[in-house]
Amino acid sequence: MTQLIRELYPICRSITGEGVRQTLRLLAREIPLHVREIPSGTRVLDWDVPREWNIRDAWIKTVRGDRVVDFRAHTLHVMSYSVPVRGRVSLQQLRRHLHSLPDHPDWIPYRTSYYEEDWAFCVTHRQYEAMTEPEYDVCIDSDLHDGSMTYAECFLPGRSDTEVLVSAHVCHPSLANDNLSGIAVAAQLARYVAMKHRRYSYRFIFAPGTIGAIAWLAQHESWVGRIGHGIVLAGVGDPGPITYKASRRGNTEIDRAMAHVLRHRGGEHKIEAFSPYGHDERQYCSPGFDLAVGCLMRSPWGSYPEYHTSADSPDFVTRESLEDSLETCIAAIEVLEGNAAYVNQRPKGEPQLGRYGLYGRTGGSADVNMAMLWVLNLSDGRHTLLDIAERAQLSFSTVRRAADALQDADLLAEAPGLTTRDVARHGDAEGVR
Amino acid sequence: MTQLIRELYPICRSITGEGVRQTLRLLAREIPLHVREIPSGTRVLDWDVPREWNIRDAWIKTVRGDRVVDFRAHTLHVMSYSVPVRGRVSLQQLRRHLHSLPDHPDWIPYRTSYYEEDWAFCVTHRQYEAMTEPEYDVCIDSDLHDGSMTYAECFLPGRSDTEVLVSAHVCHPSLANDNLSGIAVAAQLARYVAMKHRRYSYRFIFAPGTIGAIAWLAQHESWVGRIGHGIVLAGVGDPGPITYKASRRGNTEIDRAMAHVLRHRGGEHKIEAFSPYGHDERQYCSPGFDLAVGCLMRSPWGSYPEYHTSADSPDFVTRESLEDSLETCIAAIEVLEGNAAYVNQRPKGEPQLGRYGLYGRTGGSADVNMAMLWVLNLSDGRHTLLDIAERAQLSFSTVRRAADALQDADLLAEAPGLTTRDVARHGDAEGVR
Amino acid sequence: MTQLIRELYPICRSITGEGVRQTLRLLAREIPLHVREIPSGTRVLDWDVPREWNIRDAWIKTVRGDRVVDFRAHTLHVMSYSVPVRGRVSLQQLRRHLHSLPDHPDWIPYRTSYYEEDWAFCVTHRQYEAMTEPEYDVCIDSDLHDGSMTYAECFLPGRSDTEVLVSAHVCHPSLANDNLSGIAVAAQLARYVAMKHRRYSYRFIFAPGTIGAIAWLAQHESWVGRIGHGIVLAGVGDPGPITYKASRRGNTEIDRAMAHVLRHRGGEHKIEAFSPYGHDERQYCSPGFDLAVGCLMRSPWGSYPEYHTSADSPDFVTRESLEDSLETCIAAIEVLEGNAAYVNQRPKGEPQLGRYGLYGRTGGSADVNMAMLWVLNLSDGRHTLLDIAERAQLSFSTVRRAADALQDADLLAEAPGLTTRDVARHGDAEGVR
Lengths: 433, 433, 433
Description:
Aminopeptidase, Arc Repressor Mutant, subunit A, 433 residues, 4-stranded antiparallel beta sheet, homotrimer, alpha/beta, Glucose Oxidase, domain 1
């Protein structure tokens, strides 16, 4: 994952343009990707797809021709969606188009102006202070034209056509945690899921923030009922502890699975209630969709000084955090995949477990034996294994193992209804759509 | 309000009689009042309206003719509803008819005997101890006759005939906090409400405690379904922090509005669960009516030493407390008036707020911008603005302001059903009834 | 109760055999008992009734003939259900059939092998260490044959055929707290209940643990719907504080009654959630029955070192603990017996209590007066007296007393429905069945 992040880091991404396409091409080497283009001007829900923005070069030069600010040195130097500009400006004029961070004089801030025509340079405060000459030559060699917005999907069909959505935003330029970390963890998770027998189908979305999620929702408006569970991955590589922000409904299966996994993995973590500000869960959880989509982060956006600055570099992201984020996702998916409700086939009294070779059997831990009693006691078709694990204060995997043993001994049968739903296959679910 | 309290203070009120009438006459100079008389003996629910009690004078004199206790000095000197008495009694006999407070030797206690025929004097303990002569002449020049019980209403019609009830008891003689404070705040609140555009109709009731509320309920038995919300005001001028006692149902809109207002006003306050003892909420919340009526107090009855003694004088009541109580009521009424459920008209994804001039617009505080996102996200017809304010941990007024902006931009429409109910006008709601 | 415990202590009980029969014969002198025998091999739910086990004598002797371990000295010396054995064994062989407790060198452990054919001696660790000779003669003069399993019931019919189940396991040999204490408290409770006017019918079950409860459930499978409430009594004599383990449903009337009683009795106590491990509540609360049966213990099983050792002798059990356990059961039964929902007959406003002689009447404590207001306020047919007591934070008995006074004054009538259910009498409920 760190390798992929370093590879993607130098690319100048924005909500549209070649940067996103190049990013998705590199990603397509890792996982099967279906890339889509949506023409500028397309109405998507309440929004219009904006013009496509591309940039070739940009600089601030002294009148003697020395580049004092150079886009080739860092993509953050130009405010995203800056209109083209070329000419000589006074220092006073220029300063109205400069952003810097006095408190962090070596960091470049990240700024955008998607929906208002403007141009600006983002510079370190040392650069800002060093610009003392009366005039400078400036050039932003960008263009805005009717092109298209790009996003990609990786679809992995399962036995059921109920889908698990994993979404990462791809619109930020050279920022590592926000959100190359999310892209890398999503890609690695897709590789993991691709190798597993799957109950659910999985859909990984790599799209520009806000407008990309809105475009995807617009194009799948009649379809989103299939999304049973989802996670937005955003800022999952910084050294802070994990934060899971619950879905709008707040007690959906993904919310409960994540809370369970985080509690049983131990270690510091935080679970936040939904709020309508943050990442693309804002769109997935808008009231007209209200999907069961939460957001996995480490340090929440805005809560760390490196956020949206050049200090969010590949060095800021740790291998341990990326792996911990990935393992948390995998564990949550194991819960979703393995969660089901069962009916005890000997519900009156306890079954004589010795009869089935299940009493204190070798290799069975005390936890699994206790879990068998819990599963038998609560398997009345109304409690899922996750319900049981929570009530028994046992890990889901222990409870799942106990249920497997009981099912093998015909003491447990899947509760009717769930199976049917999962077996129903969507006609064309056989590949990446 | 302090002016009104000082003016009403000297009057000898009881549950019936001229004192109440005089009080209501003075009050009628402040607000439009409709005064009602209910004849003695009228059956009201499980009670009978008692005989009317009036008193002209009362004293204890030495046999030499010196008044040692004088009703003209303080109305509390005579136990309320004392039967007439005149004659010479031994000190021993007299003492059986004396009440004093040894722990507060300068205070006169307040005593009543509404439903048992008796007479007594209430005296300071210093007076009690000074009475050492073998015999005294006593006189209570009162009478009990079939007359009537008096109460008054101020009705202010609104767009809806759902009513907000505000009730204050008027039966106590010279006691300032209990309940001239409630009367004064209710009157001031009526003046405030009278000047506002009103969604709800408002009914202010000034009636004797217990029997007055019961009589009002008896006379409006088929009507009380119109009472949507209500507050009993009792002891709202002492220097203690505010106490709100919730209605029997405990989670009605007035309960939630009061709790919200108190939390967001800051400062010390207490919210108590309903209990069937206290003020007239006992009657309004009896199970056959079960109205959404709470009780606003400062120090609860019985919790402060001045309670029901001559120390509950106009000096005990502070201007700050009265104003704080009034402002709390006004804020709660603003919540009731402004609370409604809406439906987001662009429920799929977030609307592009910039399109409507609502994105980070000048003058909009960060709170209002955040409130707009909350209102959009939760306006699915199932959440009122108060629900939203509570979940967002924002003040109701901020959320109301956000909803107004969104409604102006046609992004929000009132949820069907609520409007209809409020617009329905009661035929004769056009004046004080 | 301590007398009965000392009398029953020496008997060698197991899940079948003469020890249980002798125990029940002694118990039948205290309370009316109906003893039942279920033949070995009878299928009961998922189990088979095992062969009957009896033992006459057992010993380990030196080859010189000295008894170094003697069953006549303590019934725990032989593992329960040991198959018969007789012969000379090497010390090495013998040690594979010895159990001792190195940490408690003077205590004999308690061991069983019901469902696996084996034999063993349980010895103090001092005995174990003293056995140093190369060979010993061993004898277990037991037999396992097709006989029957024995249990007993004491049935006390009430006005309603809804039953309260009290269950104690009788399968342990010389262990006092586990469970002669439960047997003794159950017997004493039966004597108490027998002398009372009863709303409910009561069924006391004295049966071997697990297999006994399962056999009873198997034989009453179509009947268990009559069990309205139940308590398993197990380990109720040790000096620890009371532990109540709630039923599987967790908020049944018996759970709430026990919690109420323990809170209002004061003193240390613990309320545990249900878990599917423990005593016979495991069977009563299996999902196919899911009865409202909790478990009263003092120190939970396994939580004290004396558990399942010879240190659980009659000296370990205290009179105070037995009486406290009994009184707790009686108080909980008083709640069940007295709990009902009523309808206030003057639900509009408060009734004028003075009219009925109920206002501040002599002998009525402040609590009872307050309880009357609570009962009147909440008696809308939807709140039971236990609900009211909990909400009012008053003891059930105070609330019951208030309801009685109000019912005597015709201010309260029993809520329809409850009466009918209770009055319905089961045809043959007139004696021990």
